[in-house]
Amino acid sequence: MLEYAVDDWFDVVTVYSVFHTQRTESPIDVRNWALGLICRLLTAGLIRPGDIVGGEFWVWLGIASDWLGRIAQDWLSREDPLLHFGEVAWFDITEEGEVRAGQLGIES
After folding, report:
1. Which domain holds residue 98?
2. Degrees (nearest 5) of the Cα angle 4, 25, 17?
């Protein structure tokens, strides 16, 4: 996911799509895998969630546990685990995420 993050903001659909193309589980299972990855990235401080408003990224207030709760509550409350572009949350890389991406040889 850091490959996506170093270049631009990305949304929950992008995370879902990565698992969907690599796994054969049901959409609900893929959603759960995606939520797990989002959790790991948020708690490691590699990404931060927000909204895109007027072409700018606005970080959500709170901490990783707040953010994950908001994302999970929104996504899990939907009957269909398949989302549309931009729904639930957008993500931006953090300074720590940029450092980690650099260590992994990921460049923008």
Report:
1. 2-103
2. 20
